[in-house]
Each structure stands twice: as structure tokens, then as C-alpha cells.
Write a structure and sequence with these properties.
The chain has a seven-stranded parallel sheet with strand order 3-2-1-4-7-8-9, sandwiched between helices. 45% of the residues lie in helices and 16% in strands.
Length: 253
């Protein structure tokens, strides 16, 4: 995939991994379309990078379909999609006050897994109408899993299940979309310096970083973005979930 001149949609682009990825792709010459539930945040990222921003609820079919239609009509057909939008929720399955909140579990699955699929299905449909490159490629979709998909901790049932679903979605989606020349890859980040983690007390951040074999620090969101860029450029990467975690493995709690 030639990134320069391509149209790249990034969800969760108002902050964290999404904002960093949008910046990395923009610096490589992509036209950025920033999606976020926080419309002002999406537009702020887009304005900084010379792109366009939309307020989009990735878990809502009408919201995504309307946004992708607007992108195609006003910017063009995207050839890159990076799904970074997501939420977290910590709760034990059986807690001191009884069973876990089913609505909270459902919301995490809806945003992280169904939202990823929702973006993929609508964007892949648009990508299928791209003119193929000399090698037949029309697009690449990068979804965000997590190392919690493989080593979910106590209290992470909802988050781990949602990210496990994203990882499991990767191969069947890559196989199916191959007929359209669209690749599908997932990135499973470890402990990264996103707003969620950076909001924790300093000693907690230091403890998390100390558990990472090397380098002993939190990941930089730009490192996630650079991996996303490499996936776009390396056509043989397809149907795989790639860990980026400094060799850390999560303990039970």
C-alpha cells in the first residue's frame, strides 16, 4: 500500500493511539479522516493534520454508514482504516455486591467488538470500489486488539472478551476480503502511555513499566502508529494479530 496520497480513516482519533496514528500516517503523506465520538476532538486532530474530522459513534450502524458516505462524497474512497476507538470497564464477575452489571459488559462488547466490525463492514464495502493497485490491492484495515485478549486479568472479563473477539475476527475477515484486495490485520498493544494509563498515579505507572522486560517503560503511542504505518506498507502482513508489548505478560491481577 502506498500511503502517500491515500485516504486514511482513523477512529478514536481525538486522543491516545488514534491521535498518534493519525499523525504518523499524515506525516507519511496520507489524507486523514478523523472519527471520534468526541466530535470537537476529532476535528481538532484533523485540523492539526490538514484533514477532516467527524463525530461518529462506531457502535451505531446509521452513524457509521452516514459518515462513510460523507467521506466518499467529499474526500474520496478510503484505502486505509485504523480502528482505535474503544472503552474499558473493570468489574469482577461475582463481586461483593453480587453479579457483574450485564449492561456494562454489553456496552464494552458493543463498542470494542461490534464497533470494530461495524467500521470494517462499511469501510470495506467502500474500499471494494477502489481502483486496484498493480498488485491488486484496494485497501488495508488495522484493528486494535490487546494483550488482554490472551492474558486477561481478574476484573477484565468484558475488555478481554471484546479484544479476544477482535483478534479472532482477523483471520476470517482477511480470508473473506482477500477477493476484494483488502488486507485485515490486528495490533495487540501492551501497556501504552495513553490518557487512560497516564491518568493513574505515578507509582502505579512505574510499577507497570517495571513489569515490562525491555524496554522498561510504557509504550509510546507513536510506536503503535509506526507499526500501523509499516503494516500499510508491507503487503505480506495479512490475517495476523501482532503484539507490541516489550515482551510483557500480564499477571492474573
Amino acid at each position: 500500500m502506498q500511503v502517500k496520497g491515500s485516504i486514511a480513516i482513523v477512529t478514536g482519533a481525538a486522543s491516545g493511539l488514534g491521535a498518534a496514528t493519525a499523525e504518523v500516517l499524515a506525516n507519511a503523506g496520507a489524507k486523514i479522516v478523523a472519527f471520534d465520538l468526541n466530535e470537537d476532538g476529532a476535528k481538532a486532530t484533523a485540523d492539526k493534520l490538514g484533514g477532516v474530522g467527524f463525530g461518529v459513534d462506531v457502535s451505531n450502524g446509521d452513524s457509521v454508514e452516514t459518515a462513510i458516505k460523507a467521506v466518499v462524497e467529499t474526500v474520496g474512497i478510503p484505502s486505509i482504516l485504523v480502528n482505535c476507538a474503544g472503552i474499558v470497564h473493570g468489574e469482577r464477575i461475582v463481586g461483593r455486591d453480587g453479579p457483574a452489571d450485564l449492561a456494562a459488559f454489553s456496552k464494552v462488547i458493543t463498542v470494542n467488538l461490534i464497533g470494530t466490525f461495524n467500521m470494517m463492514r462499511v469501510t470495506a464495502d467502500a474500499m471494494s470500489r477502489n481502483e486496484p493497485s498493480d498488485t491488486g490491492e484496494r485497501g488495508v484495515i488495522i484493528n486494535t486488539a490487546s494483550i488482554a485478549a490472551f492474558e486477561g486479568q481478574i476484573g477484565q472479563a468484558a475488555y478481554a472478551a471484546s479484544k479476544g473477539g477482535v483478534s479472532s475476527l482477523t483471520l476470517p475477515a482477511a480470508r473473506e476480503l482477500s477477493r476484494h484486495g483488502v488486507r485485515v490485520v490486528a495490533i495487540a498493544p501492551g501497556l501504552f502511555g495513553t490518557p487512560m494509563l497516564m491518568g493513574l498515579p505515578g507509582e502505579v505507572q512505574e510499577s507497570l513499566a517495571a513489569n515490562t522486560p525491555f524496554p522498561k517503560r510504557l509504550g509510546d503511542p507513536n510506536e503503535y502508529g509506526r507499526l500501523a504505518l509499516h503494516i500499510c506498507e508491507n503487503q505480506m502482513i495479512n490475517g495476523e494479530t501482532i503484539r507490541i508489548d516489550g515482551a510483557v505478560r500480564l499477571e492474573p491481577k
